[in-house]
Amino acid sequence: MMKILITYDMLRDAYTELTKRYDVCFPDGRDFTYNEILERIPDYDVLCPMFDFPVDKQVIDHAANLKLIANYAVGYNNIDVAYALERGITVTNTPEPVIAPTANLALGLMIDLARRITECDRKLRTEKTSMKIGVMENLGAQITGRTLGILGMGRIGKALCRRAGACGMNVIYHNRRPLDVEEETKLNVIYVPFNKLLEESDFLSLNAPFTSETYHIIDEKAFSLMKPSAFLINTARGPLIDEYALVNALKNNHICGAGLDVFEFGDYPLPDLLELENVVLTPHIGTQTLDVRLDMIHAVCNNVIGFIENDRSISRVIKP
Ligand code: GLV
């Protein structure tokens, strides 16, 4: 019987598709540590990691029987994919359920920043009746008619593009490869070089995967090209932004604000970001609804079953 090792403790009952077919090992009451996985992995055929669990060379070298790494995420920067593929191990991810909730959160952060929703809420609570209220106070920024720049025009970028269109925004984008003309026409988007994206965006949303090419793609130089009135949104991965450079850019008014669901150094933002009013922060909640959690579990199960039984299509990662 195939042996499946799951690194995280979450909604175990939703894995019946796997548990009725295979020998599945879950951690109990907490996630497995890295060392616990190293100890167990030699016996297992399939590893199901969470997006923050590092499946590096060491794990792969210990995994004598491993055939499949079924990641719980669309992003797979936690996995040394090149090494896994070289060792003949298949890698899968869960793109479909992640698209809408992530695009929704990016739009939410954009509107929140522009209209200062969280900031006003915070002030009403802390300053109470001393908060300045009046028709010329708490002025926000317009979204309708403004330009959204999308960096990374994959499935999430396109979903955000459609939402932005519904809000009356103009959308430009940059991607490793431009879309074909029919798709650009359908989405009503214009491809621009990276520097132009920085220069022209009123809102810049990062929707690209974290790779060696996108590491610190938004750095001090990038901030110097952005409009002082621009807002930066990141629902992708923290290390796309040089977070120290972001703090500087915000403090020196090189940009107007930032909405971040992910941070460069793990689960928490740099403390300086907590002090800034023009920053909206969420703790990697892009896919954090119960429905989406369950949909992602079903996507992981489908990938595992489809790989083993060859009875359905799977979402295979084909290159690092
Ligand atoms: C979440 O961050 C994902 O990559 O699915």
Describe this structure in words.
- By secondary structure, the chain is α/β, with parallel strands linked by helices.
- It has two domains: 112 residues, Rossmann fold; 184 residues, NAD(P)-binding Rossmann-like Domain (Rossmann fold, 3-Layer(aba) Sandwich), CATH 3.40.50.
- Helices cover 37% and strands 14% of the residues.
- The strands form two sheets. It has a seven-stranded parallel sheet with strand order 8-7-6-9-10-11-12, with helices on both faces.
- Helix 11 links the parallel strand 10 and strand 11.
- The longest helix has 21 residues.
- The radius of gyration is 21 Å and the shape is globular.
- The mean pLDDT is 98.
- The site of glyoxylic acid (GLV) has 7 residues, from loops.
